[in-house]
Structure formats: C-alpha cells, structure tokens
What does this fold into?
Amino acid sequence: MGSMESTSTGRTAAARDRDTEGRARNTRPRDGLGRPLPYGAEGVARQPEGVVRRPEESVAEAQRLLDRGKPFHAHEVFEDAWKSGPERERELWRGLAQLAVGLTHAARGNATGGARLLRRGAGAAQEWAAEAAEDRPHGIDLPGVIAWARELAAEVERGGGPVDAQARAPRLREAS
It folds into this structure.
C-alpha cells in the first residue's frame, strides 16, 4: 500500500477530490485563465463539463468566452464538441481546443508551451481541412484562424511577456 502524502493544504493524496463515479476531479477554484487557486479562494465560474451542443452553439459559446479573455474555458467547450461530436470532426475540434490552450499558455506567460500548442492546433486544423476538403466547417474561418495562430505563435516566441487573451482572441467566423 502507498503512503498518504500530505499536500500544501493539509489534505492527503488519498483525500483527492472525486466525482460521483470516483474519478479524480480537482474542485479547487480557478482564475480566468484556468490556473488553480487555493481552496476557499474566490474563483471564476467553471465551464460545465460534458455539455452536448450543436456545432454552431459550440462555436458561438467558444467565441463568447474568447471575447471575454477566457481561452481556457473556450478550450473546454471545444473539448466537449471533440468528445461528443461525430468521429469525422474530432480532429477539427481537438485542433481548436489546442489553439485555445495555446492562447491560454501565451496569456500565462508560457511562451514555449503557448507557441507549441498554437502551432500544433493550427497544423491539426489545416490537416483536417485538407482531408475533409472543407475550410469553413460550421461557419468557422479555418484559414483565418490558422493564420492567426501561426502569427501569434511567432509573436509569442519573439518575447515581450504574456499576451492579453482578450485583445488577442481569434475571430472564429469572418465578420459579416
């Protein structure tokens, strides 16, 4: 049997937060960029997990969160779409989730991780578009989003510290 490791909050590893099915779930509050805060701290409301939305609703909800400077929360919306959507679109949603996480890392000041995830997400979206022969699924401007991600990745690598997630949020759909 393993030992009970004490955490900085005095909780033990065996007392990890768990959901009703016994899976580990961190219930610590989080800030607007998804960073865990100490238990009892005032955090930002979390995105509910496992929400099944129509693709257009996922895009609209993710854009709303991105526009509010909450790319971590937008990534959770994309993750739900990735997990609940049709198999043929999973790589599209996974790529979009990676882009949102890349922006999250860039906003947190993690230039290496931010640039890497922005490029990985852009590559996944581009590969999906080529295989599906579609560059505007559900109204998403994939060429524009891919260009945004690569431009931001290069900017983040040039330095200058954390980016403003709200100011640098992508436009998922072309302005009409």
Remarks:
- The radius of gyration is 18 Å.
- The CA atoms of residues 109 and 162 lie 4 Å apart.
